[in-house]
Write a structure and sequence with these properties.
CATH class of one domain: Alpha Beta
CATH architecture of one domain: 2-Layer Sandwich
GO molecular function: ATP binding; phosphorelay sensor kinase activity
Helix content: 40-55%
Membrane topology: Multi-pass membrane protein
Subcellular location: Cell membrane
Main location: membrane
Structural class: alpha+beta
Number of helices: 14
Keywords: ATP-binding, Cell membrane, Kinase, Membrane, Nucleotide-binding, Phosphoprotein, Transferase, Transmembrane, Transmembrane helix, Two-component regulatory system
Length: about 550
């Protein structure tokens, strides 16, 4: 079977991958810049805290100096100014200011401000250190304030220390290049990953643009659910990826997406036809309600296996009509042959009348008129139902034209309204067709080409037994003959071979009956149907009569 090879236009080649790559590069650049800025602010805050803690440490060192403590308690601004300036210069602080409890400065890097009050309150009265950012006379600084105690432990003021802002910024600028290198490396790696991802997406989507993919999806949904054929698609691993409404109806599937056939269908010919075990085209499969034609085609795209597509067509009505047509054609051929026979007899009768042999003409007319009536009466004595009588008489007439004699067993006994009437017509018709075909071909046996049928009913059910003098069933084929499509004969007319016995087997099994067959020369089929369930009988569907082996 030739695989389906799909070709897709490349009108927009490269555009999708380029768009994806460009979008990802823009995202990477934006996230890199945002990350860099966030890191800078976070690092600035961390450096501020570090320098504020450093300012507190310098302030604590100043507040612990014994000269300053004694001078602040006993008086002596010159000593405080000298010691504070020495500490400021050695620590690199922008200012070291000692303030008394009245807010008067006793030291300052600008001597003219010594003795002047500060504008903010003395916060160290609570005995705790304080940090923050100060916009003072020396500029913006990271500030730390601690309480100042005299030698006797009395709170006498506070020490305020500031570290210039340019020191904090300088430290920040020294750290940012390292992070910029990291951000650049991360952006470059992200760009490579984006390029590889874009190439992979391009390969997965077969170069289709996003708009084309959306259009294909819409077209697929409209097509799948609008056609009157069942469609299934399988991934390379055998799982169902697509199933339309018609396939669900014909196959009796529920939510089958993502499942394997083994999970949704029992083992049988239908599953083997769907999974590719059965090869060929137009594989006929019988279900309980439908006669289906299954075709499976593998799908490849640019040398890559994508799975398979299966189409399922409902041929129930068509097959039934074709089988009826084939039966009617057989009956027509038989009637045409009988017409020739009766025409010859009429010519003979006319000749006898012309020569005046009236007695011989009378005997010939009586004989011709009673031959067909005798057959019908013989069947009616054993079978009371007119439909079954008509079937047996018709099959007998058709068989006679092929040199086969149909014999109704003397033990046959069927009433006017037998149970399973429609099923019996289908079963008997199929079995008789198969038997006539088998007996009518090949060499003539000593006893002649004969098909025997026996129809009986009792208090437990109905039995149909059909035997023929044909070649019979091959050894070992007793089970496989009931599978859809099994046949030992070529196609005949318009009817498909291999459905009659499968149909009989399904009818019998569905209604709790049994069917047996003998192997070897001269096949004998025996069907036993129990009494029907009145409620189930109301909803039974039966395909038209017609058979094949």
């Amino acid at each position: 079977m030739t695989p389906i090879r799909t070709r897709i236009g490349r009108g927009g080649r490269g555009r999708l991958s380029a768009r994806i790559l460009a979008s990802q590069l823009v995202i990477l650049a934006l996230t890199g810049v945002i990350g860099f800025l966030l890191f800078a602010f976070a690092q600035r805050s961390a450096l501020d805290r570090t320098y504020e803690e450093r300012a507190v440490a310098i302030a604590k060192t100043t507040a612990a100096d014994p000269q300053i403590r004694r001078a602040m308690q006993e008086g002596g601004s010159d000593v405080v100014q000298a010691v504070a300036e020495r500490i400021r210069q050695s620590s690199g602080a922008s200012y070291v200011v000692v303030i008394d409890l009245h807010g008067i400065r006793h030291s300052h890097p600008m001597p003219q401000l010594v003795g002047s009050p500060v504008t903010e309150p003395v916060v160290a009265r609570d005995g705790q250190p304080h940090v923050g950012t100060d916009q003072g006379a020396t500029g913006r600084s990271a500030n730390g304030k601690v309480p100042l105690y005299g030698p006797t432990g009395t709170l006498v003021g506070e020490v305020s220390v500031g570290i210039p802002e340019h020191d904090v910024l300088g430290e920040l600028w020294r750290e940012l290049p390292t992070f910029a290198v990291y951000a650049t490396i991360a952006t470059a790696l992200g760009s490579v990953a984006a390029f590889l991802l874009a190439r992979r997406l391009k390969r997965i989507t077969f170069g289709l643009e996003l708009e084309e993919i959306a259009g294909l999806l819409q077209d697929r949904e409209a097509m799948l659910h609008g056609i009157r054929e069942g469609v299934l698609a399988f991934a390379p691993n055998g799982r169902i990826t697509v199933v339309n409404d018609e396939a669900r109806r014909l196959l009796g599937l529920g939510t089958a997406l993502g499942s394997t056939l083994a999970e949704v269908l029992p083992d049988g010919r239908l599953r083997r036809a769907l999974d590719g075990t059965l090869t060929g085209t137009d594989i006929s499969v019988l279900t309980d309600e439908h006669c289906l034609v299954v075709n499976r085609m593998p799908v490849t795209l640019r040398g890559r296996e994508l799975g398979a597509v299966v189409t399922v067509r409902d041929r129930t009505e068509l097959v039934g009509l074709l089988r009826e047509l084939d039966s009617v054609r057989g009956l027509t051929d038989a009637l045409r042959a009988q017409q020739h026979e009766f025409t010859n007899r009429l010519h003979t009768l006319a000749g006898l009348l012309d020569i005046g042999a009236y007695d011989d003409a009378y005997e010939l007319a009586v004989e011709s008129a009673g031959a067909g009536q005798a057959l019908t009466e013989s069947v009616r004595r054993r079978i009371g139902n007119p439909l079954m009588v008509g079937l047996v008489v018709a099959k007998t007439t058709v068989a006679a034209e092929r040199g086969v004699r149909v014999v109704l067993d003397d033990d046959s006994a069927l009433g006017e309204d037998p149970p399973h009437l429609r099923r019996l017509l289908t079963i008997a018709g199929n079995l008789l067709d198969n038997a006539i075909d088998a007996a009518g071909d090949g060499p003539v046996p000593p006893q002649g080409r004969v098909v025997g049928i026996r129809l009986t009913e009792d208090t437990e059910g109905t039995t149909v037994r059909v035997a023929d003098t044909g070649p019979g069933i091959p050894p070992g084929a007793g089970e496989s003959i009931f599978e859809d499509g099994w046949s030992t004969r070529p196609e005949r007319g318009t009817a498909r071979r291999g459905l009659g016995l499968a149909l009989v087997h399904r009818l019998v099994s569905r209604h709790g009956g049994t069917i047996t067959v003998s192997e070897g020369p001269g096949a004998v089929f025996t069907v036993r149907l129990p009494l029907p369930d009145p409620l189930a009988e109301r909803f039974t569907k039966v395909l038209p009569v017609g058979g094949d082996r």
